[in-house]
Amino acid sequence: MYYLCISKVEMTTERDMAHDIRHDGIIESIEGRHIRVRILQTSACGACQIAAHCRASEMKEKIVDVESDPKGLSVGQAVVVSTTDSVARRALMVGFGLPLVLLLVVLVATFLITHDEEVAGIAALCSLVPYYVVLWIAKERISRNVAFGIEVKSEE
Fold first, then answer.
1. Does position 8 have pLDDT exceeding 70, yes or no?
2. The pLDDT value given to residue 123
3. Which bin fits 72, alpha (ψ -120 to 50), beta or left (φ > 0)?
4. How far is Cα 152 from Cα 27, in angstroms, rounded to an integer?
């Protein structure tokens, strides 16, 4: 049995033809310029009437940290959090693409050297530990390159 679920992402075209990825959310807290927004990320199936009876539907609640001027914003307010398509692609590459490439390169290289599948598998998995440790250490630098916008949700 096959399911097709497409993420429910609203795309808008700006004058410069860049795409924004937008999610509705609720402000959880405001501390200086640091705004925490709770978003409900749903698959396209999430809004379906029979989604409760289907295993393909998926809903996840996430907290997004936004650095912005909190002027005119308050806790509990409905907002729209957005980022550019290129920032999202870069985040996916760093979070999933590069680790996959690292895993496969170490797996193949270790297998070619040792001819032992178990050793190759363990080495490949262990190679991800330093990668994610470096990401954790560099999280401040990475966060400067990942920018989210926030705007008050308009009443429709």
1. no
2. 97
3. left
4. 10
Measured in whole angstroms, how far is the alpha carbon of residue 19 from the centre of its chain? 16
pTM of full prediction above 0.85: no
* Interatomic CA distance for residues 156 and 11, integer angstroms: 17
pLDDT at 16: 40
DSSP 42-59: EBGGGGSTTGGG-TT--E
- DSSP alpha helices (H): ranges in the chain? 85-92, 98-114, 117-137, 139-145
